[in-house]
Amino acid sequence: MQVLIAEDDVDAVELYRVALEARGHVVTITLDGRECVDVYTKSMQRLEPTNRPSSQPYDAVILDYKMPVVDGLEAAKEIMRLNPQQRIIFVSAYVKETLMDSVRELNQVTELVQKPFEPDLLVDMIEDTSTVSRLGELNQLVSQISIKSGGSPDGSQFEILMQLLKKIQKTGTI
Which fold has domain 2-169? Predict the structure, then answer.
């Protein structure tokens, strides 16, 4: 799989890279959200001549939620504007805040990994592509909640979303 990572902690990104490459994945590393979006944009431009609507430059984009220059949420917004189907995985010590911002700003639940974690957990998550379809079902629920409430989910609904995401990911880390 092709994986793009945006993480400002050089030691953490090296651990991710080693774990992913050990399992045969191709990794592109960026150190902030701006660099990540620039790399992603260039990769999308290289794909455009193929005219394949399902083409994606990366199987997964891993974003640290809190980064200097451009944070993970802003990078995700820009990437999703370019490619709404892109799989985004946030790594964050602030999972509740990340989930809430993901729903409010991206209008969807994204995959989350709570820091700190073992790099193999991230690799397992990336390789579990069944999560993507189950996440689509969860995002339909988010749409229904938003329509009914006229906005975003409330606190108790976020707790339910968090529990459902935990079950979908099968990681138990959130």
Answer: Rossmann fold (3.40.50)
